[in-house]
Specification:
Distance between the termini: 12 Å
Helix content: 10-25%
Largest sheet: 9 strands, antiparallel
Amino acid sequence: MAKYQDLFAAYRNNQLPTDGGFIVSSFFDEESTYSRYEAISYAHVKDLFPSEDSITFQAEGAKVFILVEPRSYPKKHIEPAYRHQEHKIPYRFNEVEVHTTQRDDRIMIGKEPVMTYTSFTVLKPSGNDFAYIFYTADDLLSTLETFFEESLRKDARIPMRDAKKATEVFMAVFKKMVFTGFNG
């Protein structure tokens, strides 16, 4: 099984691959099941700039975002790109696949990766949030698939069938953003 570890621990231990890798971070609302995931495929790291609450990668990157919106979310009529900072992802409604769960929660997954050509920043997790680096391996895609399905079920509290369906949609998008030269 492909290995992964906390991104910031990997940085401290000088175990961040600079030729490329995959980062998954999450942001969970403390008062509801509102959740955001950010998956990044990166390559060609020129430099890393750590700060107290983040790491900035001077590198090429491709990102895809997942948003889990509970049925009770009062601002569901607002485009995801225009929501308050902690509820925002950089997509409009026509740019996301929407899966409605059996509990009427909505899972929004970007249809296409967002490209970054110069740099991107990963925030240090707080509370139940996380930021993991996944190391390239032959079974990377199956490891990511299992990871996302379990996280959607356990962390975002999505029913199993819906977590599986959302993960399938996410993996189809994620495969588009694997940089050339990686074994996925």
